[in-house]
Design goal:
The chain is of the alpha/beta class. It contains 19 helices and 12 strands. The strands form 3 sheets. It has a 6-stranded parallel β-sheet with strand order 5-2-1-6-7-8. A 3-stranded mixed β-sheet has the order 4-3-10. Helix 5 crosses helix 6 and helix 8 packs across helix 15.
Length: about 425
């Protein structure tokens, strides 16, 4: 592609160059640039030896992002990435990022296992293996130069991602004897936010004729829906003015867990309460469930009648999010196979659906019939050969009756035999 790229001030260090960050953070920063005086660009750091930086560099770090859904298609040429740095090939170039006073933000998506501490990492490694160790060396250089720290916006899908990143950095400070002064500077001159991200990114649309009129080997696609909840007491908007855009970014001092619970209970809970029933009914994708009247009704009853009444956010926020979930499930551009969602369904049900069941009973002193029906379908599902779970779990579920299964606290975290009669009403129905 031949595109006249705008030069901006490098303000963001981004660990990771995959489809999610390019279709979420970088797309958002493009919008912030267009609607405010932020004037910022991103330096991408390839966090592992192999990655996509060479492909990005070959296209001058410019790519097309397509947002696709029932609403149609929205096309954005994203030119917010200024360059790529590969620490495994040029560690000095990586450390030099600390020397730029205008650098202010660090974003990352190094997978759920990326924010970890390893005692095997050495201060002399160039680079060390883990993401937090790489960051610690960058921060130490910045500290030695007498500069302010960074605002961290990690996107890894773990609870309290910012807190955990800071914890790892301080562990490296101790391991490498970096001193109390450095540790105090990490605490006082850096901002570690906890975040929740939500967007389905569908990556490169292989085999499709997109009709762009130019070649782009890095075309990225996603759904329209996006949500970034950032928990911090820092005045983030003063430096990164999301408020100047119409982006779905929520900055809150203390309500991240409420939004996380909303996502787990409504989005993930809807999936988990739907999938066994749908697979038993011969359906294969989430969209096919939306198109099926019986399954659509089941899904809506689960969400609107029995899950939402157990949550504490304002009703309009809950309804708006729930309606967006149903719309997302019906996106014709997303082929989300039920079989992939069905992996480890018992443990998913325990985390995503069971809390709604128990909270509903607690609040209303009656049984949530649709969710208990979904529970029965889960038990029916485990009697088949369609399951994909730990062999011991499958064997136990197949060989025991409803009461015995529900009484097994190792599966559910507690004895659920008091629900056995209600669940059994719907088993094999």
């Amino acid at each position: 592609m031949n595109f006249d790229k705008k030069q901006r001030t490098e303000r963001v260090i981004q660990f990771g160059e995959g489809g999610f960050l390019r279709g979420f953070v970088d797309w958002m920063l493009q919008k912030v640039n267009e609607n405010s005086n932020f004037d910022g660009s991103v330096v991408v750091v390839q966090p592992i030896e192999q990655g996509m930086c060479d492909m990005l560099t070959a296209q001058n770090c410019v790519y097309t992002h397509l947002i696709r859904g029932v609403e149609g298609v929205d096309t954005t040429v994203v030119d917010v990435i200024s360059r790529c740095v590969k620490p495994y090939e040029d560690f000095a170039a990586y450390l030099a990022l600390a020397e730029q006073p205008e650098m202010r933000f660090v974003v990352s998506n190094t997978t759920e296992s990326g924010i970890v501490f390893s005692a095997d990492d050495k201060i002399t490694d160039a680079p060390p293996k883990t993401f937090p160790a790489k960051v610690t060396l960058l921060l130490k250089k910045r500290f030695d130069l007498g500069l302010d720290g960074f605002i961290f916006l990690p996107c890894e899908l773990i609870d309290r991602n910012g807190d955990n990143l800071k914890k790892c950095i301080l562990q490296y400070a101790d391991l490498w004897n970096l001193g109390d002064g450095f540790k105090a500077w990490v605490e006082e001159k850096n901002v570690f936010t906890n975040t929740l991200v939500d967007r389905i990114n569908t990556g490169y649309p292989r085999g499709e004729d997109l009709g762009l009129g130019y070649e782009d080997n890095l075309v990225n696609t996603s759904e329209f829906f996006h949500l970034w909840v950032i928990e911090t007491e820092y005045d983030l908007d003063s430096e990164l003015p999301f408020s100047k855009t119409d982006l779905n970014v929520i900055i809150t001092p203390d309500k991240l867990e409420m939004y996380r619970t909303r996502k787990v209970r409504i989005l993930n809970g809807a999936h988990t309460s739907l999938v066994p029933y749908a697979l038993l009914s011969g359906l294969d994708t989430v969209k096919s469930c939306i198109d099926d009247p019986t399954m659509n009704e089941h899904l809506r009853k689960c969400i609107f009648d029995e899950i939402i009444p157990t949550l504490d956010l304002p009703e309009d926020e809950l309804l708006s999010y729930a309606n967006s979930v149903v719309e997302r499930f019906g996106n014709p551009y997303i082929k989300h196979y039920l079989s992939s969602i069905a992996l480890n369904s018992v443990s998913k049900f325990k985390v995503r659906v069971l809390p709604s069941i128990l909270e509903y009973i607690k609040r209303y002193n009656k049984m949530p019939e649709t969710l208990l029906f979904a529970f029965a379908k889960l038990l029916d599902f485990y009697k088949t050969d369609m399951t994909n779970d730990d062999a011991e779990v499958v064997a136990f579920m197949k060989s025991h009756n409803t009461r015995e299964v529900l009484a097994n606290a190792s599966l559910w975290g507690q004895d659920l035999s008091h629900l056995a009669d209600e669940v059994d009403k719907y088993v094999n129905k």
